[in-house]
Amino acid sequence: MTETSSVETFEIPPTSRTYVHLQCGRKTTVDGEEFQGLCNPFAGLLGVSTFCVPCRKQAALNDFMWADTGENLAAYRKRVLRSIPRGMRVRTRLLRAAMLIVPPIIGFVVARALMHRGAIVVPALAAIGGLVVGVLGVGIQMVADRRDFTVYR
Ligand SMILES: [Zn+2]
Q1: Interval between CA 9 and ligand 1 midpoint (Å)
Q2: How far is Cα 108 from Cα 125, in angstroms, rounded to an integer?
Q3: How far is ligand 1, taken at its centre, from the CA of residue 47, in Å?
Q4: Residue 15 Cα, ligand 1 centroid: separation in angstroms?
Q5: Which residues surround ligand 1, an ion (CB under 5 A)?
Q6: Distances (CA, A) of 110 to 97, 106, 121, 128
Q7: Both 91 and 58 in a single domain?
Q8: Å from CA of 43 to ligand 1 middle
Q9: Do 138 and 112 belong together in one domain?
Q10: Number of C-beta neighbours around residue 89 at 10 A
Q11: Residue 116: inside a domain
Q12: Residue at a domain's end among 83, 108, 136
């Protein structure tokens, strides 16, 4: 029994790929960092959107399809995500959840210990500071994640 579904790969990893904006029917070619981010199902903390160059509109991935395979971009990312071994998916999510949860708790607990009993404003601010640190940590982890998903067709 296997938990992963197989994903077809390109024989030669592409350096760019073209997508079609469903609203206007026109094409945009992506390469470099944008191409990497578009293919990486772990990229994007608050959801991912992309840009149609001909009509200069930013839109959800659901509004685009790959020109070569005709697959919807949102469906493509879901499929690639499903192909990743479950352990790796869980580790990435746990790491990010821990980065968002642990620093605020530490900030709150430490500030609380240093303050008068019953003080709440400073510990609350310390918790917010911890959250900012956590969000930055997740952002850095995303940028540092060099896994290449562009090979997935
Ligand atoms: Zn367009």
Answers
A1: 27
A2: 8
A3: 19
A4: 22
A5: 21, 24, 52, 55
A6: 20, 6, 13, 13
A7: no
A8: 23
A9: yes
A10: 16
A11: yes
A12: 83
Report the Cα 82 to chain-centroid distance in Å. 14
- Give domain status of residue 9, yes or no: no
* 75 vs 113: CA distance, rounded Å: 48
Domain holding 132, by residue range, is 86-144
Tell me the CA–centroid distance for residue 120 and ligand 1, in Å.
50
pTM listed for this prediction: 0.72
Count structural domains, the chain: 2
Computed from CA positions of residues 48, 149, 80, 13, in that sequence, does the dihedral angle turn out positive or negative? positive
Closest to 19 (Cα-Cα) out of 54, 59, 70: 70
What is the distance in A from the centroid of ligand 1 to the CA of 70?
A: 16
The single-letter DSSP state of residue 62 is G
Q: What pLDDT, in 10s, does the model give residues 82-138?
A: 888 889 889 988 999 999 999 999 999 999 999 877 788 999 999 999 999 999 998
- Kindly give the distance from the C-alpha atom of residue 22 to the centroid of ligand 1, in angstroms, as a whole number: 7
Confidence of residue 1 (pLDDT cuts 50, 70, 90): very low
Q: Using CA atoms, how far apart are residues 63 and 20, in angstroms rounded to an integer?
A: 9
Among residues 137, 131, 136, the alpha carbon closest in space to that of 104 is found at 131
d(CA 21, CA 96): 32
35 CA to centre of ligand 1 in angstroms:
17
Residue 7 domain-assigned?
no
